[in-house]
Design brief:
The complex is a heterodimer.
Chain A lengths: L2 E6 L2 E6 L4 H7 L23 E4 L6 E2 L10 E3 L3 H17 L14 H8 L16 E2 L5 E4 L8 H10 L4 E4 L6 E4 L16 H5 L5 E3 L11 H12 L6
Parallel strand pairs in A: 1-5
Antiparallel strand pairs in A: 1-2, 3-4, 3-5, 6-7, 7-10, 8-9
Chain B lengths: L3 E7 L5 H7 L4 H8 E5 L12 E7 L2 E3 H12 L1 E7 L1 H5 L13 H10 L17 E6 L9 E3 L6 H12 L15
Parallel strand pairs in B: 1-2, 1-3, 3-5, 5-7
Antiparallel strand pairs in B: 4-6
Chain lengths: 238, 180
């Protein structure tokens, strides 16, 4: 494998030819912010947070896709990029209905953390307040589309790690949404294996475990009753 | 140095930001040495005074009274700080916005749920009309600085007040701009 040398933020770096700028930067200890990117899953290039400036080109490029090249000069943290990243996060907040204070992911959300990192202390755009649905039909998980940023991490985790491809994206533009199978209730999905990888991949509180918020706990008392019946009455079947 | 003339205002919010302000505990005694608190819901004063140096505004703009009052507050204050997530983002107060208007919330609260005498509250001049859409403070008047949080923790409020008392520009960063 041939080795390429390039400059990232003034630092001379060597990387193998098939590496992306993101890989090369991370290998050199340079952090580029990402939101839709997940190590081990295919790149999506949707969130645009990892955009970088490349010398000799006026176009910004996503570091998660762009391959390194000999002599390339990359800037990952310029005034222009910082402003774009802040605008991207503000667009994400304005596009959905994100209410950190009452979200199950409060304090454990990558969108919330990105807002802090880019210095978003308020929203400069008008909120759109879309009408979106919540699907609680699955026994173990729920999805609140109000909190979805369409990063497709659930889609890729389900397809590439679990091999089920239950999730996909339907619709266009601001009507886009993630769907299970043929846009049917998650609980009716014949392909979902209930493995929870979409939940693990979700950066926000969009996909969450059922029974995790106030007054939702289920003690599953019936199981206890089943065991008692099994022992005392020798009834093993419900 | 002249003492800072400080005010706090409570609009469409739960008063949690003011509770967090009170959670400054004994530092409030220090604050009293540094600033004159000239208007706040915690004291009995009806008219917002002139020449306020800095005002912390809790809550979103949710009804006609808020909309009118914030204009006076802006006019009479040098620095206006959005205080807490409702003022900064709309937060829980704006949770009704995807429903399209105020009516679905009023109908749910005053017609569907009450056991006795269900009727919509209409008391012109007494109960202010809700705006169709709740908006953050900076959507209505110019805001000079933002102090997010639900509520902003006391140490964040203290940092902001110390910055204001020192006459420095207020701009918070990192963990001090965490929503929620």
């Amino acid at each position: 494998m041939s080795v390429t040398t390039l400059t990232i933020d003034g630092k001379l770096i060597s990387a193998s030819q098939d590496e992306t700028i993101l890989d090369a930067a991370r290998g050199a200890g340079i952090q580029i912010p990402t939101l839709c990117y997940v190590d081990g899953l295919s790149a999506h290039g949707g969130c645009r947070l990892c955009l970088v400036e490349i010398g000799g080109s006026s176009r910004l490029q996503p570091a998660c896709f762009m391959k390194v090249a000999e002599g390339m000069v990359v800037q990952t943290d310029t005034e222009k990029l910082r402003e774009y990243r802040k605008m991207i996060v503000e667009l994400l907040f304005a596009e959905g209905n994100h209410v950190c204070s009452i979200c199950v992911a409060n304090g454990n959300c990558e969108l919330q953390t990105q807002a802090m990192d880019v210095g978003m202390d308020h929203e400069r755009l008008d909120y759109t307040y879309p009408q979106r649905q919540v699907d609680l039909s699955h026994e173990r998980f729920g999805i609140d589309h109000n909190r979805c940023i369409l990063c497709t991490r659930c889609v890729r985790a389900c397809d590439e790690l679990e091999g089920a491809h239950t999730w996909d994206v339907a619709g266009r533009g601001s009507n886009s949404k993630v769907v299970t199978d043929l846009n049917q209730p998650w609980g009716d999905s014949p392909t979902c294996t209930s493995c929870g990888k979409c939940f693990m991949a979700c950066p926000t509180g969009a996909i969450f475990k059922q029974g995790a918020t106030v007054a939702e706990m289920d003690h599953h008392r019936a199981k206890l009753e089943f065991l008692v019946n099994a022992r005392e009455k020798k009834q093993w079947h419900v | 140095m002249a003492r800072l003339k400080l005010a706090t205002v409570w609009l469409g919010g739960c008063s949690g930001c003011h509770m967090s302000f009170l959670d400054l505990d004994e530092w409030l005694i220090d604050l009293a040495q540094l600033a004159d608190i000239v208007f706040t819901p915690i004291m009995d004063r009806k008219v917002y005074p002139e020449n306020v140096d800095a005002v912390l505004v809790e809550g979103a703009i949710a009804n006609e009274d808020h909309f009118e009052f914030i204009q006076d507050v802006r006019e009479r204050s040098k620095l206006l700080i959005s205080f807490g997530d409702c003022a900064v983002t709309g937060n829980v107060t704006a949770f009704r916005n995807p429903l399209g208007s105020a009516l679905p919330v009023l109908e749910r609260s005053y017609l569907e749920l009450p056991d006795l005498d269900p009727h919509l509250p209409v008391e012109p001049g007494i109960v202010p009309r809700l705006l169709e859409r709740v908006v953050p403070v900076h959507a209505v008047v110019k805001v000079d600085a933002y102090l997010p949080g639900c509520p902003p923790p006391p140490d964040r409020i203290r940092l902001a007040l110390e910055t204001l008392v020192a006459g420095k520009p207020l701009e918070l960063h990192g963990k001090d701009i965490k929503f929620g």
